[in-house]
Amino acid sequence: MLVFFVLNSRKDLYWATGGFMVAILLSLAASWRLERRLPVMPVFTAAFVLVFGGLTLALRDETFIKVKPTIVNGLFALILGVGLLRGRALLSVVFGDALELTEAGWRTLTARWAVFFVLLAALNEVVWRTCETDTWVAFKTFGIAPLTLVFMIAQAPLLQRHQLASPAKESEHG
Do residues 112 and 155 lie in contact, with contact meaning Cβ atoms separated by under 8 Å? Predict the structure, then answer.
């Protein structure tokens, strides 16, 4: 995102978009080189950056790159919400290796993230439609990440309350 901000401030949104597209491809290449796999979420996001960035550049229309966060966050919310309606807390599939939670914990965490993604989508819509491009770029670069970090930290009590005891922890106390 810093590439996006710097190129926008030194050139314009089109340069920023092209630079961001290159940066995301380099990021995926580095991930592949280091881990020999591509994580689902970054690939999903990269696909949208490439499609909407490509449309922005090809049609010389800023609208496409500005609505990308709305669409991506909306899709994340929709996928998580539909999963919950079908009885699946899909975050457990994505983060199951990192977190061990009860089913109720996964459901609650998934529902909270779905709502958060809806709020991010709505916030992006308000900002890009009511502010200058430079303000939107600054919001996207320096607003979304801190909001997401605060939201993640706010989930700590839920994670602690619903964390399963791992066998290693049980043997330490037993």
Answer: yes
Nearest to 53 by CA among 75, 84, 25: 25
Distance CA 81, CA 18 (A): 32
Question: What region does 152 belong to: left with phi over 0, alpha with psi -120 to 50, or beta?
Answer: alpha
The whole-angstrom separation of Cα 66 and Cα 71 is 10
Cβ proximity of 53 and 65 under 8 Å: yes
Q: What is the mean pLDDT of residues 110-138?
A: 98
Q: What is the pLDDT of residues 61-94, one digit of tens each?
A: 999 999 999 999 999 999 999 999 999 999 998 8
- CA angle (97, 102, 107) in 5-degree steps: 90
